[in-house]
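Tutorial handout. Part one gives the primary structure; part two gives the three-dimensional structure as tokens.
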Amino acid sequence: MNMIKRFFIIAFTLFLPISMNAGIGDWTLHTSYCNTTSCQVAGDKVYVLASGSLFVYDKKDNSVYTYDKQNSLSDFNIAYINYCKGIDALLIVYKNANIDILYSNGYVYNISDFKNKIISNKNINGVNIYGNTAYINTSFGVVLLDLENLEFTNTYNLNLNTYCSYTAGSDIYIGTETGIYKGSVEDNLLDKANWTKINSYKTYVINSINGKLIAVINGKGACTLKSDGSIEKTIVANTKQNKYSYNYNNSLYIGWNNQLAIINSDTDYKTYTPATESEFIMADGNGFWSCKGEKGVVESKIADTKIVDGENYIIPNSPIRNYCEFIKFSQNNKLLVAGGTLNYFDVTFYPGTLMEYDYSSNKWINFPEEEIKTTTGIQYVNLCSIDEDPTEPGHYFASSFGQGIYEFRNGKFVAHYNHKNSPLESPVPASMNYVRIPRVQFDAAGNLWVVNTNCKDIVKVLKKDGSWVILPYDDITDFPTMVDMIIDSRGWLWITSYQAIPGVFCAKMNNTPFDIADDRTKLVINNFINQDGTSYKIDQVYCIKEDKNGQIWVGTNNGLFVVTDAEKFFKDGVLTQIKVPRNDGTGLADYLFGGAQISAIEIDGANRKWIGTKNNGIYLVSSDGLETIHHFTKDNSMLPSNDITSIAVNKNSGEVFIGTSEGIASYVSDATEPSPTLQESAVHAYPNPVKALYNGVISIVGLTHGCEVKIVDTAGYLITEGISIGGQFTWNGRNAQGEKVSSGVYYVLMYDENGDESLATKILITR
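Part two.
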């Protein structure tokens, strides 16, 4: 059996991300815990499944603990939790069929056999526990896991989509898409022929009370069954899909969003209506714990026929959802996140998701949602970009792929712009609310640039004075999938066309951004030609970014391309592919990321490139692209997924935030944004003083690019030296022989790249 045994001392207080205390090379998961969907009560602890993650509320001291792959668990995306009293442990089943067992003393066992087993379809529909055996209901049948001996014992493969299991003596009942099947453990149940179909009802729950078999049947509700499987009596009628069921104190609890039934027998039962619809309601002897989705989990009581919620909703501070299609840092050092989707060819609607991570408070702030839908009268969905006005902190604009543009001030909704009250256009009749705005971006003067795709005039600008300007570029009229946009350091406008007509558009605006009469434009579509004359068919252009040398980096489904000379690009439309020498004596080279799907690009303080891919994680390459410094995947890092959607670098700390299809993680890198000059007020070392137990690196920040750094002791002997990476230099606290230096004061001597400026600071080390 492939098992990993782990032990963790969980000692958190109320959940707070730990980015501000992380050192170089450290990862932080920014996991959502905001959508509570089920819970399990184990003594004084309430385990809560929320947004596919796990937290626990301790009733004794009102503390909240969070669990994730970083501090204890083995994977992401929990599908089900269930408590086994016999072994005093929580069973955790992930969507990918990985399994953890979390014991009350902190031990975590990981069982990955089922995850690693090659099966074409092993979706998990639920888990039932009887005694110390877990019955895992899957898309093909039932898998039995012995929780005491930590081993799989049987697999009952009926080739049927299975929702539930139930044992009664030697009999096993299985509820499937097409009906209930019955088998006896005295027979060989590995043989499908030994199972008997007793009815044809799609069944979500099977249980019994006082010898009566009870099933929750699709479209009917909770019913008692005769021995032949036919319905004897409908106890509780409910046509909605069943949400949950469990036994507690010899009673059967069955729940729907709008109803909880407590059944003692087919004649002794009561039904209760939650004050507001609940995803899950769990009894604990004193009352209930109700999972209220994004409101959190709350202690509830029965009042007549109502289940009344208490006032204290418990929910950790975290991103409201694990959606992060677009992320960027504002000029005020706040991470901005938009969690929509560009649903060009389907009808996916992500709820309106805008978030801000505030470094000063180390907390997530989730923008309001319900009031916007109420005010505008239309769906609030698919927010796909956000930017902050550089002239007015706290003033935000966010774009929706379908609903136009939303304006916020200081966290409050201000205005909504669409085809009815602005020049924004819709490609379909006005009543359809189909204003597609994939990107908004401010320029330095506070003018908001807008990509209004799939319409006559793609580019529009909301000026600082409130007036609109339309820029009618004929080259891209009616282009259906214009997406990403930058205004580069030359003042040129670049826009990518995602697909349908994939390519890159550039407008040389000649310092007259609102007058296109003197503009020169260039459009390269469908095929990219590199410096060797090789032509590449391009199906998608995902992203575009300017580096610190003015080069334009473009990510496509067929590799990475660079505009190394913008003027030359205007003449011949040629893009460069970086060649990485093989260094094997052949003199040959390979194109950097040739053929890879490049989904996101970001530039750090040292002009290095963070390159995100659609299916192979994220890379850090040198400024020229010739050296791969890091390659992080889900297997060797804290990345929730190898599908990278967005990247943003904190210029002050060097922390790299990585958006994936399953949520956000951040990595503390060794490059910060360089300072223009060496200034005593900006340069500092941390940690300082360095205490005896500290084993991480010591960082000197606030440096200029290419700054020469020497560290010497009080006698003037050189300990180490090097060149800053961006605005940062790191030291491991060791001498040239690799030995830890002794206690004392060490001087950091700094000289800028040209030798014109110098500065010194001190580091105190105690051993």
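Part three, for discussion. Residues 1-20 have pLDDT under 50 and may be disordered. The helical segments are 113-116, 370-376, 566-572.
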